[in-house]
Every structure is written in structure tokens, then in C-alpha cells.
Amino acid sequence: MAIAALVALALVGLALAVLLYRKFANALYYGAKIGGPRGYPLIGNALLFLYKSPPDFFLAIEKTIREAGRCFRLWLGPELLVIVTDAKVAEGILSSPKYIEKSGEYDFMRPWLGEGLLTSSGRKWHSHRKIITPTFHFKILEQFVEIFDHQSDVFVEQLRAQAASGQAFDVFPLVTLYALDVICESAMGTKINAQIHSDSEYVKAVKEITCIIHIRTYDVMARYNSLFNLSPYRRQQDKVLKVLHGYTNSVIQSRRRDLVENNQKSQQDRDREAELGIRRKVAFLDMLLQTTVDGRPLTDVEIREEVDTFMFEGHDTTTSAISFLMYRLARHPEVQRKVYEEIVAVIGAERDTPVTLAMLNELHYLELVVKETLRLYPSVPFYGRKILENCEIEGRTFPAGANVIIMPFFMGRDSEYFEDPQEFRPERFAVETSAEKTNPYRYIPFSAGPRNCIGQKFAMAEIKNVISKVLRHFELLAPDHFGPSCDMIGIPFHLRPPPGRTLHSLVRTIASTKPADLSGTQDKNTRQKINFHELKHPSKVPQRPNKSTIDGQSTPTRIPVDTQTVQLLERLSLVDLDSAEAHRTLEAKK
Ligand code: HEM
């Protein structure tokens, strides 16, 4: 009896081993050929990502790139990841219509976005991409510029309010609210007035779900559903999803009713409205309501997925770009001066001149500055594809099931791709010497190929608009103590996350407290500041004072901006693949 049981057990064990071998042999074999850091049995390289904050995650990857090169494999338990920072390999994947399936990381967005444009694949993605592309036509963009213009006026008022308080604050949360206002009005045609009512249920829900997505992306403990479902994040997610989906659904219903009413209007009514100058702005949602796929209209769920996708992709990315751009302008007064002069030449110095798309397209130098900012701080620092069948790219076999993670963050800092990558030099993108043109796949903050960013023209116009407005009102200044040595500032120990929480969530928590509460949360010496100097004479083309003149003034209007978030990420900006010295210093700081 005992022997029979032992034999049965051995057979089950053998069957299991064969099953596991059949499931993983292919990936193990080709994964080993790609090469990567040594891992442990069963967990692989998961320890590299345990309780990791975003900066620590990036430092770990950067260290591995040094050791293993621009393309290497990692095992996260049973998951095979292939990290790619090689432009040729990235080109092989991004340019091909075969590799459009998204990697496992996108599952963290699915509870909110469902199968929208960012997360879907196959036939659904193809047909939706086709119908959504025309919504970014320049004629439609033109009407969105009105929204940017109005919302950036509100943004300027928020900055002015901070100037009056004189309290330290982080620019990032204010930019988030501005970007949310813009995308909500453009995508749904409704005003949430996030900049004024930042504590509204919908605004808070967007912030919370974005935070949960980030936590799941960076921290291996929140990555797997089995662990995530046991955590408080899961309950929090269920709660905010009700708010998010509820809001989008109600807007869809109301816009449907409006559309029916509008269609019932007689030609006479329409002519009268046209005479009175009543022009209804068409939101992205309206276009979806009127479109058809394979001869049928989109369902409410399909529309909701696309609108929510825009809400996410259209605010998180531009927020990061605008925040880092403001930070860089403050650090490079000569660049800021050139941007300002261009704005005055194209739009004029008057603060309330309405901006048009044609004017924004004329801001060529500002465009170079945006591109340079995205080289160093790509809003989407990595994105992934799932390989469905074994395939060969640039001499390597990528096994079926592998998640390929392409990292523009490191490509933008690679000295083989960009000369002196650590230098902020917008001119490198000038047409004659354009870094983009030498090999377009070295510079991919908007991705490339069939699944590139559909909203990049919208984003560029939005960023240019808000910067042109801010610089007509304020000068961004870096205070004297803010020199190169400050670059090495690490995260003060007491701001490190307790186990189980990522630093990112902590930063978000701090950022969402009132500015006044911030002052006590960190050591004075570790605070970096950007000041805004308000221009006094808007009606004349103002001669911008240089820094020493400003310092000489008795009471300039200044807003000390606490760049907690920038500080966190500035640490990453030092991850220059070229500079072993910088790396050693960072390691020592840790
Ligand atoms: C600085 C701003 C932005 C950056 C850097 C950026 C970057 C990207 C990147 C890298 C992707 C590819 C992601 C992937 O392959 O998984 C992407 C896709 C996408 N982006 Fe953007 N984005 C920006 C702004 C926007 C805006 C403003 C919108 C909408 C108004 C938008 C809508 C989308 C959508 C819908 C996709 C999915 C496209 C598809 O898969 O067919 N993005 N974006």
C-alpha cells in the first residue's frame, strides 16, 4: 500500500515536472541565451524589485544595464522580462505590426481603462485606432486650443495665489489639476474645475487610481493579483472605480440626450444659433457617439473605455512633461530667456492675447525645449509588448510569452546615442542637426510605429500653450543655493517608505496635503526651490531682469516652489550611463 502511494506520488511529481518543463523550457532556453543577472530558484530576480520606489527601481535597472548591456533578461518568478535599451532592437519591435500586444504591466490599468486604445489589441485595436485618428486632425485641435488657453488662465491664478501665500509648494499637484481640467473638457466636454475644486470626488478618484497603477508597476509585492487582492489597495481600487465609471457613464448618457435634441433642431434654429455666434465645442466623446465600427455604433462600454483612456493618458503624461519643463527652465535662465523672446515675437507680451494653433506651431524653439525635456524625463519612461510566438530580432530569439520592456528613459541618457547626454541642450533637436533624424528609434518618448502616441500633437500644443502663458506672467528662477552639488541630493531618510509602501505613494500623499503642511515635513537643507518672479509691466514688451537685478530688488513677487517630486526624480537624472563617477556617488548616498 505504502509503495503504491509512493509510486503514485512519484508519478504525479514527474507529470508536474514534465508540465512545468513544457511550459517554461522554451523561455528558459532562449532567456538564458539572451543573458542577464543571476537569479534565485523560483523567484528569479524578484528581489531586485522588492519594495522598490521608482528611483530605486531605475537605479537597479541602470546598474544591470552596466553589467549586462542594452538587452538582457530578468525573471520575476515565472514571468520572463526582456529589458531593451538598444535602438535597433526597439526598432525591430516597434516598427512591426506583428508585435502590438501589450505586456503584463498594462493589466494594472485594465480595471479602469478596460480594453481602450492603450490596452486593447488585435481587431478591436485596429478598428478603434482607425476611427480615433481623425479626432486629432488639426481643425479639431484648433478648438481644443481655446480650452488650453482658458484653463491656463486659471492655472496662472493658482500660481499667483501661491505667490501671495509665500509658502513652499510643489508645482506638480497644481499642474496635475490643470492637466485634468484640460483633458476632461476636451474628452468629455464637461468642466470639473479641478483647479478650483481639487477635493471633488472625481478628481480625488483619478489621483488615487493613478497612484495604485504606479504602485503596482514598481513594487513586486503589489504586482500579483493574489497579493494585491489581499491588500487595502484592492478595496481602495473598487471604491474609486465606482466613482470613475459612474461619472463617465453619466456624462455619456447626458451627451447622448444632447445629441438627440440637437439632431431634432430645425435648420432654422441652427441658422439662428450660427447668426448669434453660438458654437458648440465638439468633445472627443461626441465624435465617438457619432461614429460607427463595422456598420454599428459603439456601445456605451466601448465609449467609456476610450474616454477613460484619454483621461489617463491625456493628463498623467502632460503633467510630468510640464512640471519637468518648468523645472528645467528655472535651471537654465538662458534657455528661458530665448523661449520668452520667441513667445513675445510670436504672440506678443500682452497676457490676454488669445493664442491660436498657428501661433503655437510657430514656437519652434520652445518645441526643441519640450523635446529635450522629454529626452531626459520621458513621461512614459518604459512601455512593453508581449511576444506571442518565438521571433528573431537583431540576431536574438525572443521566446513566446516574454514581456519586452522598452526603456526610452535610458536611451535618452545613453552617450552613444546623444552627445553629452547629461547636458540640457535643446539645440540638439534643431532641424539641421536633429538627433531624431539620425536614428528615429533612439529618441522615442512618444513611442514609434503603428502603436505610437496618438495624442502627441495635442500634447505638444497643450504644453506650448501653458508655458507661453506662464512665461508671459512669471519668470522662473532658481535660488542661489541651487547649484550642481544639489543634484546629488538623495531622499531624506525619514521620507523613505515603510516596508510595503512605495516612496511614490508617499510623495503623492505629501503632495496632496496643503502646501503649508509641507514646510515641516522635510529638512530645510534638502529643499530645492524654483521661484516665480512676476512681471510688472505687461503692456510694454518687458525687458526681463537678469537674475542679479532680481536679487537686488527689495520685495520681488516670488513663489518658492518645493520640488519634492522633482527632487525625487532629479536623482534619476544623474543616471548617466557614461558617468561611473555619478553612479558611485549615488550608491554611496544610498
Ligand atoms: C507629453 C505627453 C505624452 C507622452 C510623452 C505620451 C507618450 C505615449 C507613449 C510612449 C505611448 C505608447 C505607449 C505604449 O506603447 O504602451 C502613448 C500611447 C498613447 N497615448 Fe500618449 N503621450 C502623451 C500625451 C498624450 C495625450 C495628451 C493623449 C490624449 C489626448 C494621449 C493618448 C494616447 C493614447 C490613446 C495612446 C495609445 C495609442 C495606441 O496604442 O494606439 N497621449 N503615449
Automatic annotation (TrEMBL):
It is found in: Endoplasmic reticulum membrane; Microsome membrane. The keyword Endoplasmic reticulum applies. CDD domains: CYP4. Heme binds at C453. One of its GO terms (cellular component) is endoplasmic reticulum membrane. GO terms for molecular function: metal ion binding; monooxygenase activity. Residues 545-558 have a biased composition (Polar residues). InterPro entries: Cyt_P450, Cyt_P450_CS, Cyt_P450_E_grp-I, Cyt_P450_sf, Cytochrome_P450_Monoox. The keyword Iron applies. Keywords: Endoplasmic reticulum, Heme, Iron, Metal-binding, Microsome, Monooxygenase, Oxidoreductase. Gene3D superfamilies: Cytochrome P450 (1.10.630.10). It is a peripheral membrane protein. Belongs to the cytochrome P450 family. This is Cytochrome P450. The lineage of its organism: Eukaryota, Metazoa, Ecdysozoa, Arthropoda, Hexapoda.
